[in-house]
Amino acid sequence: MFNSPVAAHTPSKRVNRDRPRPSSSSVASSTRSPRPGGTPSRSIRASPAPSTTPRRTIRPAKSNLATHDGNDAGEERSMLGAPPASLTVGSILKHDGFSAVTLLSTLPRQVNEALQKADPYIDAVKGQLDVSTGHALLVTASKTFVWTFSPQSSAPSQFTTCYTFASSPSSSSSPSSSNLSALPHAALVPRTGNRDPGLVLVSLDGHIRFWDSVAASLAGQDRSSQRVDIVLGASESVVALCRCEATTYVIATSASRLFRLSLVSAGGRLQPQLSPFNQTRGLFGRFFASAPTSAMPGFDGLIGLAVCPPVADQGYRDVYAFGHRMVQKWRLVDGGGERLMAEQDVATIIAEEIMPPSDAQTTHIDVNVLDGASRSDGSLSLLYSHASQPNKPLKYGIVTLQSTAAFALAGNTPLDYRSLRDPRPYSSPHLIIPNGADMAFAAFPDVLVTTLLSGEQFEDHIALKDSARNRFLGFGFEGADVEAADPSLAPLSCLSAQSGALLVEVSVAAAKNFQERLSHPAERQAALNDRLQSRLEQAVFFDVLDVANPLSFGISQAQAGQGDLAAASEHISTSIVTSSSVYLETFVDVRAHLADRGARLAGLIDALRSNDLVSRLPMRTRCKLLADAQLLAAVTDLWKLHNQQMAAASSSSPSSALSSAIEDVMSASLGSVGGFGSDAVRAFFKSHAQSIVAVFERLQQRLSAAPAQSSRIEVRAREIAAIDRVAVTAFQAAQRLRQSGVAANKYGVTVTQQQAAEQTQASAMMTTTGETWTCKASSLALLEALYFATEALIRDRKRELGSRVDRVDQDEYASDADEQGATPSSLQLELKTQLCELARYALLAYAERISFLRHRDAAGIAGEQHAHHGQTHLDKERSAVEARYRSALPRMIGPLASLAGRPDRAFQLAEQHGDYATLVALCLDESTGDPAQQVEHYLRKYGRAFAWDLYGSLVQRGEVRELLRLGEGKWGEMLREYLHAGDDEQEGIEQEEERDADEDEDETAQLASISWLHDISLNVYRSASTTLLRSAVRAPHHKHDADATSSALAERHLLLSLGKLAYVADLDEAAIATEKEQRAIERIDDALDLVAVHYRLREQLGTEEALPSSVDRLCVRGQEAYAAHLAKLGRRLVQTEDDQSEEACGPDTLGAEDLVDVLTLVSPPAGPDPLTALQVLVRTPAASAATVAQQRLPSARRLESARAVLRRALLFDDWAGRVVQTRGRTEEQQRDVVASTQWYAVAATLAQDEAEMARDLFDDAGGLEGALAAGGEAWASWLEEQACAEPRRDVLAARFQRGRQAGVDVSLYLNDVDKDVEEVQGLLLSGGDDAQETALWVREAAKRAWSAAVAGEASMQE
């Protein structure tokens, strides 16, 4: 131990000594902090001593320190050296709820020069502060300096005396001094009255020098010193010097020998007397008397001493001597004499305490005692270290030992602090326990670790910033024999190499209160949060703003993880903005006030960045901190604007739009403006900046109440321009901070406004963003209202004042300048500039608000839920804002080019917000530049994103030629990609033959009509063929306008023909002969066959009376729905382009089901054509099997249509009047009659080619394969079952749900189908003789058709 100062006299009980302390630093017993100006809210001392030094917290506004000139008083007198910039004596370097650090005094010039010349890794230096005498010591290899470090003598314009002594030479060859300069041990001798203290220097080789007064150095130190020598053995050296009483010292040697040094008064002077301890030296002494130190590494001698307080009324005190493993307890009797009370290897006890129980048998812990200190109860505390692994940071702890005959462990306090061994000389850690109480300091070269030795662990670190050059050299404190004046305070004075003397005061009460809160689970997290906030406040208010502060305020990741870092950061930021933090200084000048707050906000983010904590903050908090910084920047610029307006305002109307709005807000907050003193505006800027949104609301109300358009337009112009200036100034300052790189580089807010507007879900690094003032609904409403009001004003002024108002260079209205010197033309120019800025900030506010709503919704904090069509209340708000944003983009960007004459700003905003549609419109506008060059530029810059909007715009404008021209060069593939963008969506989709001709389908058809032309130009024939064939399928459903120049039927025919030609053009001679390609071509031919059917029907129905007679026939049969349906289909087939009827739309194509109806319901002379109807169904495959050239029909509806063909073929023939009446016919004639029936023809057709058609159409019906295998009777019976099958009404109804069939009365149509089924069932299943005979002939016809089909196949095979 370096030094353990005790009382200056020999007391019989503990002394309660009030020593002078500066009042510059005090710690609140709670978590409150000092008020502005350095005044503490509560002091940890009951009654601090007065001080002549004013107290001050480090602040940039007080960075100048007055220097002092003077003459040296001889060689040994020197003026205090100039302290570091921004530091004055009494400056508070740290102040939180637990500790305070104050600059007590600076170093004398000679001491400062000696330290600056010393190499901290080579030159040995040590020191101490003696609080009982108020003097400091610094020992170097050549000189020892003594000076007064009390703050009274360090005040400005005062001198101090620095006494210099030659350090004792050392001839010791002990290992401890072989590599480094060995420094003597030094101690001051307290003297009574106002006399200067004496000095004792003991060299390592035993030479003792004593000066009765340090002032004797001025008269010649060699003559004034008294000498005594210690006779040391070989390799023995002095290792410790400790003041036991005012005139009694104990000296320890490396050989475990102890000596008493007494200063006896003789002849009015103190004289040194040396005597060894007269008791046996114990194990230390016995071992070292017979063996050199290096013989037993486990017993390396004494390293320090600790003196206990005197035992009341017993006449003795105890002294502890300790080494790295062993501890001795000696009792010193007042009249003389010493006795060894105990001696023990305590390293083993400590190792057993800290060793985990599971590793007790296998792990060996090498414990090393570093220092010790006595407690007020006579116990001993030891600072120890141990290493879990070699070359790893050491772990530390403090144990307390009680002793009688042996030492017993009374407590162990492990420390969280870790460090490697410091290679610098005299850098061993020290243990300091002021007043022997519960608060202990583990003093490392660059860190003070404070901890409580009782209760739950409490640990705090006070670290030096520049640990390479600056370190703690010595300490001063009251020992265990001095009773603390205030037990709740633990003071420690520190001597640092670069910063002079520091006073550290730790609140024991606050530490114990923190311990108590940690012990309660309900308060534990809140306590940790408060502690983290306090750490961060110290970094903000004491470190970042002043580099001269020697203390470091680093926050480790572990410390940051213990509390709510986001809440702490937001709280500090808010307290700075609202000026509610007790650390802030009060300024009269508003500009200085705002500058200080802005600098503090910058300090907050700098503190977070320097400790690598920004990444731990959620994006919401980062945005909040950035928004607060933007708010300070905004109100700072608004204050400048207010000053300018006040300077320019006339005495008759000093108020402005801004000041009036602020006064209204401040009046509403307290009820009257007078509550803020004489100037509510200043009060707003100082402490109510967070109410800026309320100011915006007042401004919007003022805008709404602006003079009507019927009033003089210039009055309205000045009013709107004034409000514009406020909004533009505020948002311009906020955006300036974002664009300067601060947002990305400091705050980590890297998401651009465009990304924020487009993203739908925050990524891992993006949590919920807060609703900052820049994206509040009121802010957005003001910007939007101002934009449209300014736009309307510009148009009105131009209409009323003429186009000359836009000519600034030739202002014809100069004589109309207002009192501020603004002319109509200059005001018009300002309004146009404001319009550009308002558009910029309004769109940014839109984007930010959308981002906020999306993130808050994604985080599940949407608040009250109002379900409406599956949407929450917040969903609807977000959707509404997004819709307004999309609408505002072209409305706000376009006029910047056309009205404000700033196409550059329009282009910039369109790019920034990704509004490519508006960007396309600007490019195609010849007034903004060369369209071709601009289109080429943005195609290169944005590629697909821009091209899609460009192509869509050209398509909508009908500029197909320009569109195809763009595809001629390097953008050909991009255009092709756009034109075929919907092709993949069409693949595999089941399409009904009737589809809605909605806008999307019209656009698809329009793109298809362009894409195949583009493909042909690129020689991509297969793709052109696919597009043509798909368009042919779609064509009939998109030519329903009266302006059609060709019928849908003709268009389909043309498209199919071109599609077939393009398909074949892509094949060579070998490929076209393959079966695969032949089948593909056959599918196209099938589609062409259906077109041919349309042409034939159109010709028949248009030239004959078949349609009217068929309709009449159906009506007679009671099937009016059939009749109406057939009439409608007939008109669609035969109408012409010049038909002016209501439903006329040109010749149309029918779907497969409609064709079947026409072909099977028409009566003579054309007659039904069921065979063609079957061919139509065969050429209209099920949706899953259809190709691009074929119409698609759901398989269930296809089956119902095939059954309808069977029923109608059966019902068309006159079975009772013609087939059954066989009288007068030969067998051959009857066979011909049967073979002439449609039923026979249908049955034979289905059975041909091994029933290929039957398998195709009736595969889903069931029973077909069995009937085909049995043939004859089974085949005929299966056909009758299909004709009599009950129809699926839901399947039939689906046919009439879309397209042109939607107008059909489905229920009536299904009733007519039911009538067909009933009639077929009556024909085949009734029990009468006639019916049975008819059923026999029906079956006979089917059997004969089967036989004929089988015979025909046999003959074909032969």
UniProtKB/TrEMBL annotation:
Span list, region Disordered: 1-82, 982-1003
GO MF, one example: structural constituent of nuclear pore
Location(s), subcellular: Nucleus envelope
Biased composition (Acidic residues): 984-1003
A Pfam match: Nucleoporin_C
Comp. bias (Low complexity): 22-50
One of the GO biological process terms: protein import into nucleus
Stored InterPro entries: Nucleoporin_Nup133/Nup155_C, Nucleoporin_Nup133/Nup155_N, Nup133-like, WD40/YVTN_repeat-like_dom_sf
This protein's record includes keyword Zinc: no
Nucleoporin Nup133/Nup155-like N-terminal domain boundaries: 98-353
SUPFAM superfamilies linked: Nucleoporin domain
PANTHER family linked to this entry: NUCLEAR PORE COMPLEX PROTEIN NUP133
Similarity field: Belongs to the nucleoporin Nup133 family.
Full protein name: Nucleoporin-domain-containing protein
